[in-house]
Design goal:
mainly alpha, 81% helix, binds protoporphyrin IX containing FE
Length: 141
C-alpha cells in the first residue's frame, strides 16, 4: 500500500514537472516567433498549467496519507519536513495564482498576462526546493 502511494506521489511529481517545464519551454520558444505563431503556442499555456495542477493535487492528496500510514502522523516527522512544507505552500499558492490569471485572461483581461513570467518561476523554484527537501527528509542517505 505504501509503495503504491509513493508511486502515485512520484507520478504526481512527473505530471507537475511535465506541466511546469513544458510551459517554460513553450513560452521561451514563443518569444522567438512572429506574433501570430507565438499566439498559437501561448494558447497552450492553460493546458500545461492544468497538467501541473493535477500533478500537484496528486502530491497533496497522497502525501498526508503516507505521513499517517508510514510515519504515524506529522509529529513523528523530522524538522526538515517543515522546510519542505513551506515550499509546498508557495507552490500551491503560485499554481492558484496562475489559474486565477488564466481565468482573468479568458474574461478578456489580457493585461494580467504580464504576471505569468513572474509567477511561473516561483512555482518552478518552489517545486524544485520541495523536491530537494523531500529527498533530504525522506531519502535516508
Ligand atoms: C501535503 C503535501 C505533501 C506531503 C504531506 C508529502 C509527504 C511525503 C512523504 C510522507 C514522503 C515519504 C514517502 C516515503 O517515505 O516513502 C514524501 C516523499 C516525497 N515527496 Fe512529498 N509530500 C507532499 C507534497 C510534495 C510535493 C509538492 C513535492 C514536490 C514538488 C513532493 C516531493 C516528494 C519527493 C521527491 C519524495 C521522495 C523523497 C525520497 O523518498 O527520497 N512532495 N512526501
Amino acid at each position: 500500500m505504501n509503495n503504491l502511494l509513493l508511486f502515485l506521489h512520484i507520478f504526481g511529481l512527473m505530471l507537475g514537472a511535465t506541466g511546469g517545464f513544458g510551459s517554460a519551454i513553450l513560452m521561451r520558444k514563443a518569444a522567438t516567433l512572429p506574433t501570430d505563431q507565438a499566439k498559437v503556442l501561448k494558447g497552450q499555456g492553460p493546458l500545461f498549467a492544468n497538467v501541473s495542477a493535477i500533478g500537484v493535487a496528486l502530491l497533496v492528496a497522497t502525501g498526508p496519507i503516507m505521513v499517517s500510514s508510514k510515519y504515524g502522523g506529522f509529529a513523528a516527522l523530522p524538522q526538515l519536513f517543515w522546510v519542505k512544507a513551506i515550499f509546498i505552500v508557495t507552490l500551491v499558492l503560485a499554481i492558484g495564482a496562475i489559474h486565477l490569471t488564466y481565468a482573468e485572461m479568458r474574461k478578456g483581461n489580457m493585461a494580467v498576462a504580464a504576471r505569468l513570467p513572474k509567477i511561473g518561476p516561483v512555482a518552478g523554484v518552489s517545486a524544485l526546493l520541495a523536491t530537494l527537501f523531500a529527498v533530504y527528509t525522506f531519502g535516508g542517505g
